[in-house]
Write a structure and sequence with these properties.
Helix content is 22%, strand content 29%. It is of the alpha+beta class. The chain folds into 2 domains: 244 residues, Class I glutamine amidotransferase (GATase) domain (Rossmann fold, 3-Layer(aba) Sandwich); 73 residues, Immunoglobulin-like. Strands 2-1-3-4-11-10-9-6-7 form a 9-stranded mixed β-sheet, with helices on both faces. The protein is globular and about 55 Å long.
Length: 339
């Protein structure tokens, strides 16, 4: 049976747990340290290019469900403009008029039909979102994700619930590398397996899929989900949260998550360490280089090639964005080492 933090199905039917506290004093201390580290960094980071993130609240179901605050802290530390908004924000699509990225932070709060329709309208506009699911297929967040996939004709099915801590959970694809290297998720408290041809798995444990990305297509913007909210609530991987936000913001900017077909090549010269940028495009484009937090560091007009001297910069992963005059966008990352 689940312990003090076990996921009681009754909770997902609307009955509040009386023992919804952390399992131990040590865990409490760890969480407090994580909070201090997260929010102490907010004043030290310059702002990235403005993106408006709307995080739909999670604490109205249970005060301890502070996933909304964790998402807010991560988004703000990355330099994005973010706010926590009430559930009523979803009453009408007009409430999301200024939203570039939408985060539904609770996996257990129901969306009435009208709010689900607003979510559908939002994704139809091509804008990206994160929808929190949970370990039961009939949990409210799981119903929301499944309903959204059905509405946009994306093939997906929930399969079976998994109990206990499912870690280590393997992280794969772009979300495992950009901008942070995140090979595994070391806490995942219960989950629900699933899959389908309309999504791409990025979280797996014991051969089963636990988290998915629906790439933007003609029917909708990008949609990401994980089938457990506790990894967010308990600060299991701020780095993976950053990767998720980075991908969603990139999708809002029109940058494909998979840059395999990009006409842009960026690599470090083995001779002098400079960054070499080459293009197979037939017209000039705008080349933008950002650090791993999304801060813009360099912008230039790119013809067939360019050379950037990064001698004054630190060793690390840098993310680039290329925009063409006809509205196309490409993105990727490069690891630069100081020489």
């Amino acid at each position: 049976m689940p312990g003090a933090r076990g996921k009681d199905p009754a909770l997902l039917q609307g009955i509040l747990r009386q023992n919804a506290t952390l399992a131990s004093p040590a865990k409490t201390i760890t969480m407090r340290i994580a909070i201090l580290l997260l929010f102490s960094g907010l004043c030290m980071l310059p702002r990235a290019s403005a993106q408006q993130l709307t995080i739909i609240e999670s604490t109205s179901f249970l005060p301890a469900h502070e996933m909304d605050s964790v998402w807010l802290g991560v988004a703000t530390s990355m330099g994005y403009t973010a706010q926590i908004a009430p559930q009523s924000t979803l009453d009408d699509i007009a409430g999301l008029a200024a939203t570039d990225v939408l985060i539904l932070s609770s996996g257990v709060i129901a969306l009435p039909a009208a709010r689900l329709h607003t979510l559908y309208q939002y994704t139809q506009s091509g804008r990206p979102c994160f929808v929190q699911s949970e370990y039961l297929a009939n949990a409210e967040g799981s119903i929301t994700f499944d309903s959204l996939m059905n509405a946009i004709n994306a093939d997906f099915q929930w399969i079976v619930s998994q109990s206990g801590d499912l870690a280590p959970v393997t992280v794969s694809g772009t979300l495992a590398t950009t901008p942070n290297a995140v090979g595994t998720l070391n806490y995942f408290w219960y989950g629900c397996t699933g899959g389908g041809t309309g999504v791409q798995s990025f979280l797996e444990a014991n051969g089963s899929e636990l988290g998915w990305v629906h790439a933007a297509d003609a029917s909708s913007g990008m949609v990401i989900t994980t089938s457990d909210q506790d990894w967010v609530k308990e600060f299991a991987s701020l780095e993976l949260m950053e990767n998720i936000l980075f991908m969603l913001v990139g999708a809002a900017n029109g940058i494909a998550a998979n840059d395999a077909a990009s006409p842009i090549t960026v690599q470090q010269s083995s001779v002098d360490g400079r960054l070499l940028v080459t293009s197979t495009l037939n017209s000039p484009c705008t080349f933008i280089l950002r650090d791993a937090r999304g801060r813009e560091l360099h912008r230039t007009t790119l013809g067939m090639s360019a050379t950037l001297d990064l001698a004054a910069w630190s060793t690390g992963t840098y993310v680039y964005e290329v925009r063409t005059r006809d509205g196309r966008a490409f993105g990727g990352k490069v690891l630069w080492s100081a020489r």
